[in-house]
Design goal:
With 275 residues, the protein is mostly helical. Helices cover 43% and strands 9% of the residues. Strand 4 and strand 5 form a beta hairpin.
Length: 275
Amino acid sequence: MVVLDEKMAPPPPYAPGSPAPPPFAGSSSRPATHISNLPANVLLQIIYMTFPQTAGVHEGPFERQRKTLYWLTYHLRLVNRAFYIACMHVLRSAYLPAYESLIRSPYSSDPFPMTSHVAGTTGTPMYTVQRETRVLDLFIALKTREDLYMDDSELHLGREELFKDLFDLMQPRSRLEDLVRHYGMREGVVHVTSPNTTRSPSSASLTDRSAKLRGQTSIPFSALSIAFSSRKVGLVLMSSGRKSTVVEVARDPKEKLEVAAKKLAKQLKVWLSHA
């Protein structure tokens, strides 16, 4: 026999729109866990699990995997910061061998370094001081789209000119900039600043300062770029919103980029020390 206590509160009504019952004693409301809040290794494993391992109805496993790579490039990585970092890890690792196979001789390449001596100064994995990494990312965007078009239609013809500017101009120029940063820091004439810090007054008006200050100052890498051609290379300084070539050296078309970078670093040291 069940004995009902008349002092107990009645059960909540079943009518639609009725207020919800109060929570149980001692219960606490916790925020819902979002997929982007998962640890990086777990999120990375989930992305790897999106790659199909079997063939579809009208396509093989490799075609399906290339579609997944396209989806990572043009859709998933744009969701938020966490997905961008995880997707770029997968994409850069997948396309790095294909990228390096297209490097023109005698150029060198290091777009995705495993370690960096300046990684601790940036404070965020979204930022990389390695400028050739941007060229690798452009290559990934072009390559994933071209692969998808080739798989979807036999009438699509591969266009080699899409990659011509990347490997004839952009890749050697960005690689030379990275080498100038490396040898310039060794010479003490180039330094790397955090992307969150503003440019110092001495670097912002470097060309307007006295020769004494020039000899005591190094130039931030963010203010330097390269003017690249087959016969000569120049070091361009951005100052007060204007660009000016401060150092220029000749180069042989068959000369390694490391040789030109050492020349530019030494000439920049001379330029900073002269009156």
